[in-house]
Design brief:
- There is one protein chain.
- The chain has 158 residues and is mostly beta strands.
- It has one domain: Immunoglobulin-like.
- It contains 1 helix and 9 strands.
- Strand 5 and strand 6 form a beta hairpin.
- The longest helix is centred in the first third of the chain and has 8 residues.
């Protein structure tokens, strides 16, 4: 799972449109001479907040990924669907139960509609990030199939 979170960091940017027909802003997670990482919400109703503790030029050592959003639906179960592309070629689709009713893996499991959720994940993997563009689309769904969060992350390593 940590490697997937890592891929998510180095992931996709498809501009999205909110309920008013306007695009959500593009947020920069890091911007150095060797690596640029950007993200945007693909949820039509709300934006999400993401941050990283350091710019992931190489994934050696520990770093933290943080996310925050306001829940529009309660979360008893949470499922993640990831799609990863490298230089425009789709390379991975992955579905993962993040938490199930009797097996919560993260603190946001069991949270109710209207609550502000903030989650921090520690990533401690030794993974080489290849040169090029990595795009990831992450969609989180609850037990009733409601979209809890959706975001696109793009990482460009030169």
């Amino acid at each position: 799972m940590r490697a997937l979170v890592l891929l998510l960091l180095g992931a996709s940017l498809s501009l999205s449109v909110n309920g008013n027909g306007q695009r959500w802003p593009i947020h920069s997670l890091c911007n150095t001479s060797r690596m640029q990482v950007y993200y945007s919400s693909c949820d039509p109703i709300q934006d999400v907040g993401l941050s990283v503790s350091r710019c992931p030029v190489s994934m050696v050592g520990e770093m933290f990924v943080r996310g925050a959003l306001l829940l529009r639906q309660s979360v008893d179960e949470l499922y993640l669907s990831l799609d990863v592309s490298y230089n425009g070629n789709h390379v991975l689709h992955y579905d993962l139960p993040v938490c199930e009713r009797h097996f919560p893996r993260v603190s946001s499991c069991g949270r109710k509609r209207g609550e502000m959720v903030s989650q921090e994940v520690r990533v401690n993997e030794d993974v080489a990030i290849p040169k090029g563009r990595i795009d990831v689309v992450a969609v989180f769904l609850n037990q009733n199939g409601y979209q809890i969060a959706c975001f696109n992350v793009t990482a460009i390593k030169t």
